[in-house]
Amino acid sequence: MNTLQGTFALVTGASKGLGRAIAIELAKKGFHLLLVARSENDLAKLSEELRTNYGVTVAFYPIDLSENTSAGKVSEWVEKNDFPVSILVNNAGYGLWGKFDELSLTDQINMCHLNMDVLVALNYMLIPRLSKSNKAYILNVSSTAAYQAVPTLAIYSATKSFVLSFTRAIRYELKNSPIAVSCLSPGPIDTGFAKRAGLDAFSKMAEKFNMKPEEVAKIALKGLFSKKSEIIPGVTNWISVYANRILPKAFIEKMAAGIYKT
């Protein structure tokens, strides 16, 4: 990994939560950072913190990644500045809770666009640049929700299943390239995700199982640099994923429906 120090890592959704924690961990390891998120103020504060505390170079690009042209703009920014990117972390994404036919169709399609389309586009656009490195890494962030259908989180869990499947496929396609591809599938993280998704009632129960973003970030990077295909932080989350593989789907869906019921 020493050969990568001094190169850049691009992190989406970097201003808060898990993305912020991953950016900090990368800075600790000597990587320069390219930070992408909506909030310019948050990005500016984090950039200054990383420069001051870890002596790394940090550039940031404030943009709403849910916009149709966002991935192209990020790629153009990287190309224009000729940043030597060796790590891509696709962390940006969000969830919506509620019955499929009762939630806004526009909001659900926008979620699909951010969780899947933007992730795919950034992978596609940045693989040529990553390939220029002797070693490079892609970390696509999924969720433990990817391993089963989740009633009232139907679209979110489906998008994360897509991320998992897509990541495994391109990992195989790139196996003879300098790029190692991994999928991170965390469970509940103390990031405010449940509140944003509208899961206020569930957020209280989730607190019992929440992992800190800093803890997940450390596990994520350890798994990434070890070239693991799937990274599932936490014993409880690993057990739940294993159970989803061996128990009947109907049973799992009934359990999930009970947990996330409206």
Can you tag this structure with a few keywords?
alpha/beta, Sc_DH/Rdtase_CS, 7 strands, globular, 262 residues, SDR_fam, 14% strand, oxidoreductase, Rossmann fold, NAD(P)-bd_dom_sf
Explain how this protein is built.
It is a single chain. The chain is an alpha/beta fold and 262 residues long. It has a single domain, classed as NAD(P)-binding Rossmann-like Domain (Rossmann fold, 3-Layer(aba) Sandwich). It has helices at residues 17-28, 40-54, 70-81, 105-130, 154-173, 193-197, 200-206, 213-225, 235-246, 249-259, and strands at 8-12, 32-37, 58-62, 85-90, 136-141, 179-184, 230-231. Helix 1 (17-28) packs across helix 8 (213-225) and helix 3 (70-81) runs parallel beside helix 4 (105-130). The longest helix has 26 residues, at 105-130. The termini are far apart.
